[in-house]
């Protein structure tokens, strides 16, 4: 371990046993899960021991672990990761706890926030939203990119972290193929909302991972939902007339992703000769040779993630 390098990226680990739930603030993870994700759990015990010194002390501590060793003597137990992990440990006092509540409130309102923390002064931290002027404003133009890093401001190093709310995925159609898609999407971090007109299909037992399951006239439901430019939508009703009506209401909306199950020729017919919107993906999913509902769901999730991360325009 050593002091923080001059040019480095790091990960924050906050310590408080009554921390805001992970579902509300994804980057403030429970310690064991957090460290396991960092390095397969090989740093967990040391970070636990190091954190004991700062718990309730209103202070910070940086740890640098060299994981480049390929033998069993270094951190990583022979993982040979060829890199370093820098962890900033930070105790949570009442002011930081209040900050977590503010982050939680913003995320519930589906608003991204930027957390900025001085690496020299425990009390010097700030939250920014997209409507506040700052030198970090451009970061809000990269949806779902959890960008972090270190920036020097007035000769002081500051850590910054973009925190985005869960992306919303609306699935029109509650058929058999929507079931694995819903589960995989939820596991991938999406807030999933299923809409259908058939009560026999749209039952909670078939979609336990969905955040909402709505049954009704799909044209009315489409009109009632307030979609945002960050939303993902998949149309998979397997009903040509239903798809036509839904697409007519959605094709001019500004969305992150609009996918339609079926061939491109079928989608052309659905559009009634209208031009393809730039955010329209058809046939939905990456071409991986998928067969059956589960594999097709995997191909769709892969495409959603690629669009979310900006790998597919």
Question: Any chance you could write out the topology, listing elements then pairs?
Answer:
Blueprint: E1 11-15, H1 31-39, H2 44-52, E2 60-66, E3 84-91, H3 94-108, E4 113-118, E5 125-128, E6 148-153, E7 156-163, E8 168-172, H4 178-187, E9 191-196, E10 212-215, H5 218-224, E11 232-235, H6 240-250, E12 257-260, H7 264-270, E13 280-281, H8 292-308
Helix pairs in contact: 4-8, 5-6
Q: Helix- and strand-based class?
A: alpha/beta
Instruction: Give unreliable regions as ranges.
Output: 1-11, 13-36
Question: How many strands, what sense, and barrel or not for the largest sheet?
Answer: 6 strands, parallel
CA-based shape: elongated
Kindly, what is the distance between the CA atoms of the first and last residues, rounded to a whole number of angstroms? 41 Å
- The order of strands across the largest sheet is 10-9-8-11-12-13
How big a fraction of the residues is strand?
15-25%
Number of DSSP-assigned strands: 13
H/E element sequence: EHHEEHEEEEEHEEHEHEHEH
Arithmetic mean of pLDDT: 81
Radius of gyration: 23 Å
Task: Tally the helices.
Answer: 8
Structural account:
There is one protein chain. The chain is of the alpha/beta class and 313 residues long. It is 27% helix and 22% strand. It contains 8 helices and 13 strands. It has helices at 31-39, 44-52, 94-108, 178-187, 218-224, 240-250, 264-270, 292-308, and strands spanning 11-15, 60-66, 84-91, 113-118, 125-128, 148-153, 156-163, 168-172, 191-196, 212-215, 232-235, 257-260, 280-281. The strands form 3 sheets. It has a 6-stranded parallel β-sheet with strand order 10-9-8-11-12-13, sandwiched between helices. Strands 5-4-7-6 form a 4-stranded antiparallel β-sheet, with helices on one face. A hairpin with a 2-residue loop joins strand 6 and strand 7 (156-163). Helix 4 (178-187) crosses helix 8 and helix 5 packs parallel to helix 6 (240-250). The protein is elongated. It starts with 10 loop residues before the first strand and ends in a 5-residue tail after the last helix.
């Amino acid at each position: 371990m050593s002091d923080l390098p001059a040019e480095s990226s790091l990960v924050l680990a906050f310590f408080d046993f009554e921390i805001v739930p992970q579902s509300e603030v994804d980057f403030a993870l429970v310690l064991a899960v957090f460290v396991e994700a960092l390095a397969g759990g090989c740093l967990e015990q040391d970070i636990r021991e190091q954190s004991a010194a700062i718990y309730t002390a209103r202070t910070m501590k940086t740890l640098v672990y060299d994981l480049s060793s390929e033998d069993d003597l270094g951190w990583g137990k022979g993982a040979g990761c060829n890199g370093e992990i820098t962890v900033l440990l930070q105790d949570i006092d009442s002011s930081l706890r209040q900050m977590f509540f503010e982050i939680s409130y913003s995320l519930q309102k589906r608003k991204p926030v930027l957390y900025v923390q001085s690496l020299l002064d425990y009390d010097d931290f700030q939250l920014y939203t997209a409507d506040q002027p700052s030198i970090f404003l451009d970061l809000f133009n990269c949806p779902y990119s959890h960008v972090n890093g270190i920036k020097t401001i007035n000769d002081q190093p500051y850590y910054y972290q973009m925190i985005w709310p869960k992306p919303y995925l609306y699935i029109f159609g509650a058929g058999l193929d929507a079931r694995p898609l819903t589960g995989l999407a939820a596991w991938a971090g999406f807030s999933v909302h299923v809409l259908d007109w058939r009560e026999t299909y749209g039952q909670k037992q078939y979609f336990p991972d969905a955040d909402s399951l709505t049954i009704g006239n799909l044209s009315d439901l489409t009109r009632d939902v307030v979609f945002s430019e960050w939303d993902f939508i998949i149309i998979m009703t397997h009903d040509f007339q239903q798809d036509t009506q839904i697409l007519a209401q959605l094709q001019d909306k500004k969305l992150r992703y609009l996918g339609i199950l079926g061939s491109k020729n079928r989608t052309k017919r659905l559009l009634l000769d209208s031009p393809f919107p730039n955010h329209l993906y058809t046939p939905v999913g990456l071409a991986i040779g998928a067969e059956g509902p589960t594999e097709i769901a995997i191909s769709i999730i892969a495409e959603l993630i690629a669009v979310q991360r900006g790998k597919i325009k």
